[in-house]
Amino acid sequence: MEVDWSAIDNKDTVYHYTKIGTAVEHILYKKSLKFSTGINTNDPREYKNWDLEPHLEGNCTNKEFRQNWLEAEKSLAEVKARYKYACFCLNDTHGQEQTGLPGYARLRMWAQYGENFYGVCIAFSAQSLQKRLSDKGNLYANPVLYDGDLEYNDTALSDADANQFLGENKEEWAEDYIRNHVNQIFFSKHEDYRDEREHLIVLRPKSSAYIIGNLKFANTTSQ
Q1: How far apart are the first and last CA of the chain?
Q2: What is d(CA 205, CA 79) in angstroms, rounded to the nearest whole number?
Q3: Sorting pLDDT into bands at 50, 70 and 90, what band is 221?
Q4: Among residues 76, 77, 69, which one has the least CA distance to residue 39?
Q5: What percentage of the chain carries pLDDT values higher than 90?
Q6: Minimum mean pLDDT range among 16-20, 28-32, 74-78
Q7: Distance CA 112, CA 119 (A)
Q8: Nearest-angstrom CA–CA distance, 195 and 98
Q9: Is 34 exposed, middle or buried (0-12, 13-18, 19+ CB in 10 A)?
Q10: pLDDT grade for 213, boundaries at 50, 70 and 90
Q11: What pLDDT sits at residue 222?
């Protein structure tokens, strides 16, 4: 049986690398996909708390300012942890410095996420995944931007206006902060990761559940 690989050589197909046990027991058998909380990623930027370096214009004691600052950072970490995400790899019809590689043929991904070349790479339809998730909460799905000025841009984002959270509900402020800066927080990575050609689906779920079931996979046809 010959597989027609052209059926998944398109802009809609995204690839998920994983271990054989995870693929067989959960993704394929149960048709479910567990979204990550960021703890098990290889990028410390994704699992560390987002540090603030806020500025303040106006009258406020140092003690009050510091207390509000700490409360804002705590709320920001708690709200960010509620966002779940799943990582995929793109065919090289997207992104910067294209190599022409299909998403299932990336050696770095096989080594890092595919159980050191003993794992599995599963093809999904990005549109079908997003449709399946559309009623689960706030959904964001984009290719990752690999940023050569990431540290500078992160520092600029951390320079929050303290007037926006002084005396305010810190949780509501944190929700707005992440919602307004979701691309910089979730969809930007250092350019050293550019070979991953990552496509990220980020979900702010309505509930605490982060295992999504009833999945649909991309199809190949045999000739």
Answers
A1: 7
A2: 11
A3: very low
A4: 77
A5: 37
A6: 28-32
A7: 10
A8: 9
A9: middle
A10: low
A11: 34
Longest dimension (CA), the chain: 74
| Burial class for 28, CB neighbours closer than 10 Å (0-12, 13-18, 19+) | middle
Separation CA 12–CA 104 (nearest Å): 14
The predicted pLDDT at position 210 comes to: 62
Tokens of 66: 């510091």
The tokens for 145 are 């931007």
Per domain, the residue ranges of the chain are 3-222
What is the average pLDDT across 64-84? 89
Tokens at residue 119, please?
């794992």
Q: d(Cα 202, Cα 114) in Å, to the nearest integer?
A: 21
Task: Tell me the pLDDT tens digit for each residue of 113-158.
Answer: 999 999 999 999 999 889 888 888 899 999 999 998 988 888 888 8
Question: Residue 86's CB: how many other CB atoms inside 10 A?
Answer: 21
> What pTM was estimated for this model as a whole?
0.83
User: Phi, psi (5° rounding) for residue 166?
Assistant: -65, 120
Three-state secondary structure along the chain?
Answer: CCEEHHHHCCCCEEEEEECHHHHHHHHHCCCCEECECCCCCCCHHHHCCCCCCCECCCCCCHHHHHHHHHHHHHHHHHHHHCCEEEEEEECCCCCCCCCCCCHHHCHHHHHHCCCCCCCEEEEEEHHHHHHHHCCCEEEEEEECEEECCHHHHHHHHHCCEHHHCCCCCHHHHHHHHHHHCHHHHHCEEEHHHHHHCEEEEEEEECCCCCEECCCCECCCEEC
